[in-house]
Every structure is written in C-alpha cells, then in structure tokens.
Design a protein that fits this description.
Number of strands: 13
Structural class: alpha/beta
Largest sheet: 8 strands, mixed
Radius of gyration: 24 Å
CATH topology of the largest domain: Rossmann fold
Shape: elongated
Distance between the termini: 65 Å
Order of helices and strands: HEHEHHEEHEHEEHEHHHHEHEHEHEE
CATH class of the largest domain: Alpha Beta
Number of domains: 2
Helix content: 25-40%
Number of helices: 14
C-alpha cells in the first residue's frame, strides 16, 4: 500500500507546493481561507452551489465587504471557483466551510454539511484529506462524515485522512485574520492529525492540536457559548442598571480597569451573527443525549432573546412620555448588520426589532452604509432601502434608534438633529434627547 501520508506531506514542501486545495463553501469562512492558500502559492479550487458567487469570483468581484477586489485579482492565477463538485477529484485536500444553522424547532440543521458530503463523496479518492470547519456538536465528524468514507472503502488514517478544525473568523477585525488566528485541529487518528496540521501550517501561524475531532468540536462551542453567556449576563445587568438609573456602560468601563480577573463584555439589542445565537443550541441539543440539562446556557439564551422586545418597549415608553404613541410614529433604525462595520445580517437582532416595531404600527425606515437594501432573510422580507443621514432626514423622524454602531455613522450629526435618540450600544452620552436601552 502506498504511504499516503508521506505522499501528501511531500506535496506541501515549500519549494514544491504541488498540493491542490479545494474549499467547499465560499462564504465568510471559505473565501478568506481559499485566498490564504492561494496567496501561499497553492492552486485552489472553490466549490459552491451558488452560481452567482462563482460568477463574481470569475470576474474578480468581491461579495464580502472586508475582502477587496484587488485581493481576488492578485489570486487570479491560482484561485478559481466552480459549481462542479467533480473537480474535488483533482484536489489533495478538501475543506468544508458550509453553514450549520438551526431548524425552526431550534435543533441542529446539518443539511448543508450532509448535502456537501453527498456531492463530494463520488469524487473522493485515496490519499486525500477532508477537513470540516463548520461549527457543530461533538461527534459530527465521527458520526456524519466518517461512516460514508468507510463505506466507500477508505481506511481512515491510512488511505484517507479526516480532521475537524473549527473556523475562527471574525469579519472586519483589523487585528486578526486567517493567518494570525491560532487554529485548533483534531484528527480521527494520529496520522490524520499530522496531515491536517501540516496542511494548515502553510497558512496559519500557530496550530493547536487536540486529542480528537470531538475535543475540537467542543472547543469551538465553548468559545462561542462563553461569549453568549457573558453577553447574557451584562444584558441582564443592563436591565437592573436601567431600573436603578445607572449607565451600565459606565459601570463596565470602570470594572474593566481592573488588570486581572475581569473581561469586559458589552450589552446590546440582542445577539447576532452565524455563531453566537446558534452554537449554544448545538450543545444543549447534544447534551440531552447524555441526560444533561444545560440550564446556565439556556438561561443566557432566554435573556439575549428578550433584548429586542426590551428595546421596542423602551422606545414605546420614551415616546409615550413625549405624548406620542408608538403606533404611527416615524422611527429610523441605525444599523441592520449584526455587528459594526460589516454587511453581515445573519441572525441580526436589528431585524427582530424592526419586526416588533412594525407589528406595533410604527412607520420604520433604516440607515446602514453596509446594507443598501434589506434582502429576504429567514425572519422576513422587506422592501426597504437605506436612507442617507442628513440633518433634514434625522429631524423628520419622531425617534432614532441606534442598533449597530458603525464607524461610518456621524455621531455628532445624529446627536444634534435627532428629536429622540434611543441608544442600545452606549454610543452617546446621557442627555435630554438620549434614552439608554
């Protein structure tokens, strides 16, 4: 039998770089990763079922705000994209970076992972490495990916290599990119780990090996649940501070001066993105298999999920105090993306706030320099375009609600011309026209 491990490692040699990398799923995780391997000198083929993404890559047009067209143009000789999954047969390593959302019953939805695996399986061959990066519950790699590979006749760790290495992308973070974020990896066998570590070391400065795919899967969930629980804590404290007439942001910033034993987390209108609102449910679902009720995690989820309603109620109360009902009020929402300085709207709490206000009869518009028009998403469909912020525009609304504090927003302009400003991000000082929510 050929020594597939040696053959694979030989192809990764710095002066050779004969390995071909396939990345399945060209979203916020897959596209930066594909570009990183391309920039390291490897031939990369991107696989995606979305033909529009493939066309844009062929035209060297970026569809992700923090990835420039010039970066795609510079990779033209080494990076191509296709909807034809048969090209996976030409790759030495295939990396799966597809979404893992929730079902409407809040259970894990692995349909994208399973669908991708079904598309890849007929074209896989001996000697390849398959890596899953999608966030998921412990056991997914062994339970979902490994059995069909073995049924195909592969011997994991000898004729085929299988690893789990969770993505840690933070879109638009100027301090950390794919290359500089330490990367966790767990292989199904020691040989799988060696091959996987060798691959990722070509583009990541620090690798963190763990004992198994399950350990790596739980590591990713722990990272995001840690954030979700702490955000839930400060959101709950925000409710208490509001009752006490205190500014929670002042309190957090003061506590953050302690040089040990405290990490600041900040409240908001809820939680959003492709990880924090979803990942805790992956673990709570899996925990039931072991008879464990993850009460702490679920309580944090309840608090975070209640925040859009809190914002809507806070706005309604502020309007009432000014002699105006929420129904019929003209409301401008600032920021529809789930976090500042990105265009990503996945699970954005701003959408929930918008829905609640519209249900109450408010006349809503929004402004977001990163989201020119609201697309159709799981939470609803709106035919609304972003409005430009001017003194006249701001003054024409009964209330303005700061939901996502983009750097592009002119805070002085907003503060000066808003008749009522509801601030969910601690972006403005307390004043006669500012209400904290």
């Amino acid at each position: 039998m050929p020594d597939y491990e040696k053959i694979f490692l030989d192809k990764l040699r710095d002066n050779d770089k004969r390995a071909i990398i396939a990345v399945a799923g060209l979203g916020y995780v897959g596209l930066p990763l594909a570009l990183s391997f391309s920039e390291a000198g490897y031939q990369v083929v991107g696989l995606d079922v979305d033909g529009e993404k493939v066309k844009k890559i062929s035209r060297r047009e970026s569809y992700i705000g923090h990835i420039s067209n010039s970066r795609l143009k510079d990779s033209a000789a080494r990076f191509s994209a296709t909807t034809d999954f048969r090209l996976a047969s030409e790759a030495d390593a295939i990396i799966i970076c597809v979404p893992t959302p929730l079902t409407r019953h809040q259970d894990p939805d692995l349909s994208y992972v399973k669908g991708t695996m079904d598309s890849l399986l007929p074209h896989l061959k001996e000697g390849q490495l398959l890596s899953l990066e999608s966030t998921t519950y412990p056991g997914t790699t062994a339970e979902i990916l490994k059995p069909p590979l073995e049924e195909k006749g592969f011997v994991i760790g000898r004729t085929f290599f299988l690893v789990y290495s969770p993505e840690r992308e933070d879109p638009a973070n100027p301090h950390f990119q794919t290359q500089t974020i330490p990367k966790v990896l767990g292989g199904c066998t020691p040989a799988c780990s060696r091959v996987g570590l060798a691959l990722y070391r070509e583009v990541v400065s620090l690798m963190v090996p763990v004992s198994s795919p399950e350990a790596a899967e739980l590591t990713k969930l722990l990272e995001n649940i840690y954030r979700a629980v702490n955000i839930g804590l400060v959101n709950e404290l925000k409710l208490l501070a509001d009752k006490m007439g205190l500014d929670i942001h002042e309190v957090i910033n003061a506590a953050a001066t302690k040089p040990f034993g405290f990490t600041p987390f900040y409240p908001g209108p809820g939680i959003g993105g492709h990880c924090i609102p979803i990942d805790p449910f992956y673990l709570t679902w899996k925990a039931r298999e072991y008879g464990v009720h993850t009460r702490f995690i679920e309580l944090a989820g309840e608090v975070n999920s209640s925040m859009p309603r809190y914002v809507a109620d806070k706005l309604s109360k502020a309007l009432n105090e000014r002699g105006m009902p929420l129904k019929g009020a003209k409301v401008l929402l600032l920021g529809m993306a789930y976090k500042k300085n990105v265009e990503d709207m996945r699970e954005s709490p701003s959408l929930e706030v918008l829905s609640l206000l519209q249900e109450a009869g408010a006349l809503c518009q929004y402004s977001d320099p990163h989201v020119p028009r609201l697309p159709t998403v799981r939470r609803g469909s709106w035919d609304i375009a972003s409005v430009k912020l001017t003194p006249e525009t701001l003054a024409s609304f009964d209330a303005v609600v700061m939901l996502t504090d983009h750097k592009a927003f002119d805070h002085d302009l907003i503060l000066q011309h808003s008749r009522l400003l509801v601030d969910t991000r601690g972006a403005f000082p307390i004043g006669p026209t500012v209400v904290k929510a």
